[in-house]
Amino acid sequence: MPHITCLRNPALGREADMKLVPAEHPKKVLIAGGGIAGMEAALTLKKRGHQPVLFEKDGALGGQFWLAGKAPRKGEMQEAMEEMARRTVQEGVEVRLNTVLSKETIEAEKPDEVIVAVGARSIELGIEGAELGHVTNGWEVLRENVKPEGNIVVIGGGLVGLEVAEFLAEKDHEVSVVEMLDEVGKDLGQLRKIAVMESLYHNQIKSYVNSECLAIKKDRLIIKTGEETQELKADYVVVAVGAKSEEAKDIEEYCKDANIPYHRIGDALKARRAINATAEAAK
Predict the structure, then answer these.
(1) Which terminus in the chain has less CB density within 10 A, N or C?
(2) Does the pLDDT of residue 6 top 80, yes or no?
(3) Confidence of residue 72 (pLDDT cuts 50, 70, 90)
(4) Residue 112 and residue 248 share a domain
(5) CA–CA separation, 35 and 84 (whole Å)
(6) Averaged over 186-199, what is the pLDDT?
(7) Who wins on pLDDT, 16 or 45?
């Protein structure tokens, strides 16, 4: 029987295994990435008496978890992220925003250990037209760095793709979703899937399942469903086909050469769900 888990309290159900023990030899630990994995690692280290220093390339903590809170019905995630960011500062963790952890910084700071929690990046499509100007990814849409208009096709019917489709449909855009599998939302939990499917129906979002994207043209997307090839009108194409771990080769190579222990956690280790990131970070 699976045990109870909690995103905001990774020790729940594991209290005996994750008891916080004061460090016998406090260490200076540099953490690359201020998402939930990086913040949880910093908080755990601070509580044990270590000296964590958290580096975040953007102007605020939160990472992709902040983006998750932009999706419909997920405002509680943004609240959780904001509360975690406040706690990180209140606990006295040194935070350096708008700063990328570089090998030069590691050399200057002389840490005992380094944690890589730089998250993941959106997977790009390797098809004709993927480089065109009207093609973007789901994270850029949720950040509102890109504001698609007209007929929009979202490639990918998983969690992120459907949330982006909802996000755009609620702004009165015409949205369609293309998915390779035999149904959309296969990676959603049961209750969330019910809500998402109701929203797709309400917002008249059309889904094309068992469909492969063949090429992106200036104003259309060419897909193949079974033996049938068809064209979908597409003023914008949003790619949401998953994520892969962000690279940090310069940090890792320097740490190896300098014999500084380093650890990958969260999506930087493997792109998964937020609860995996906090559980790893708390260890």
Answers:
(1) N
(2) no
(3) confident
(4) yes
(5) 10
(6) 89
(7) 45
Measured CA distances, 216 to 77, 97, 137, 236 (Å): 34, 38, 14, 10
Question: Residue 4: its pLDDT value, please?
Answer: 46
Q: Please check whether residue 5 lies inside any domain of the structure.
A: no
pLDDT at 12 over 70: no
pLDDT grade for 264, boundaries at 50, 70 and 90 = very high
Q: How far is Cα 53 from Cα 231, in angstroms, rounded to an integer?
A: 51
Tell me, yes or no, whether 97 lies in a domain. Answer: yes
Is the separation of the CB atoms in 148 and 168 below 8 Å?
Answer: yes
CATH number of the domain that 68 lies in? Answer: 3.40.50.720
Same domain? For 117 and 138 the reply is no
- Does this model's pTM top 0.90? My answer is no
Domain range for 189 is 124-239
How many Cβ atoms sit within 10 Å of the Cβ of residue 242? Answer: 15
Confidence band of 50 (pLDDT split at 50, 70, 90): very high
Q: Are residues 58 and 139 in the same domain?
A: no
| 225 closest CA partner among 176, 192, 175 | 176
Token reading at 183: 């149904």
Read off the tokens for 98.
């708008």
pLDDT the model gives residue 275: 46
Instruction: Please report, as a single letter, which amino acid is at residue 210.
Output: N
Return d(Cα 265, Cα 123) in angstroms, integer: 19
* CA–CA distance, 164 with 173 (Å, rounded to integer): 12
Q: Which amino acid is at 249?
A: K
**Would 16 be classed as within a structural domain?**
no
Decide: 259 and 30 in contact? Cβ < 8 Å.
Answer: no
Question: Total domain count for the chain?
Answer: 2
